[in-house]
């Protein structure tokens, strides 16, 4: 199989922002998250419990499908639920709710504009901020002339051992080739069939997420960028030892369940500014081999086999983290919530 290289889209105009004052004391610095969520209550509970345990001072959860029961079951003083019903959208532009990406951006920007936190991260319910120390300690050290901090992406791999649950035991994540400063040939070595066609070896995004300083006017909080007056803010610092761990396809069932949506409207879709190789690869596999072809792709790109873990480790592209989600849910919401 052969696929072409993607075209590069036009460069977006950039700008910088400078804060008038910054918090440099980790003990008083306050950070939080904003997310637009459509997920089962257990997944939302895990997401919330993990980040509260990590030190989040506030979490804004916009329920894309309104559900008063979820807000009631997961009520917490540091969590604000927003029901995205018709009344919620009534005073907002029609375009803001056209796609899930636009709804995410609209909601995140709304939370940013009213935030009293020092830093705000726009992340999804299947993402977990992984840090080698308290996140506030990293943020307190970000230079004052940096408007945001960049969290490098790592993608969760599916456990090859049914007895090893990544939600409670060690979870394996892969890094991008660029983050590990590896040559392109490394991808073909790690993923012999598909590595040359899947950017960075990731089936989801490769650009990471931002946690941004609050308080700037005219800011729009994108999915992967901070925007000011229509321009992309460029003065940010990469946090080398902080990652956003993306549980994009942690098992075959999840990959199958989201496949059609992601191919047409999600992360596997064709982009308007050029070709997307992954979309082409998956279409050809589906047409020529059906579900067996998709499974072959998933097994090579996502399964944490001992051989693949060793190859990733050898190329400094492996990150291991213990999420311990069920214990954290029990601690925050009670044992009954953890056993749902």
Description of the molecule:
With 340 residues, the protein is an alpha/beta fold. The protein has a domain at 25-178 and 202-249 and 318-338: Spore Coat Polysaccharide Biosynthesis Protein SpsA, Chain A (Alpha-Beta Complex), CATH 3.90.550. It has helices at 41-54, 68-73, 86-89, 100-113, 135-140, 185-190, 252-264, 277-289, 291-302, 306-314, 325-333, 335-338; strands at 14-15, 31-37, 58-63, 79-83, 119-122, 127-131, 148-156, 158-159, 170-175, 209-213, 219-221, 226-228, 231-233, 236-246, 303-304, 318-322. A hairpin with a 2-residue loop joins β12 (226-228) and β13. α1 (41-54) crosses α11 (325-333) and α8 crosses α9. The longest helix has 14 residues, at 41-54. It is globular, with a radius of gyration of 20 Å. Mean pLDDT is 91; it is low at 1-10. This is Glycosyltransferase family 2 protein. It holds the Pfam family Glyco_tranf_2_4. It comes from Pseudosulfitobacter koreensis.
Short recap of the structure:
This protein is 32% helix and 23% strand.
What brief labels describe this structure?
alpha/beta; Spore Coat Polysaccharide Biosynthesis Protein SpsA, Chain A; ten-stranded mixed sheet; four-stranded mixed sheet; 32% helix; globular; disordered N terminus
Question: What's the SSE blueprint?
Answer:
Blueprint: E1 14-15, E2 31-37, H1 41-54, E3 58-63, H2 68-73, E4 79-83, H3 86-89, H4 100-113, E5 119-122, E6 127-131, H5 135-140, E7 148-156, E8 158-159, E9 170-175, H6 185-190, E10 209-213, E11 219-221, E12 226-228, E13 231-233, E14 236-246, H7 252-264, H8 277-289, H9 291-302, E15 303-304, H10 306-314, E16 318-322, H11 325-333, H12 335-338
Parallel strand pairs: 1-13, 2-3, 2-5, 3-4, 7-14, 8-15
Antiparallel strand pairs: 5-10, 6-14, 7-9, 7-10, 9-16, 11-12, 12-13
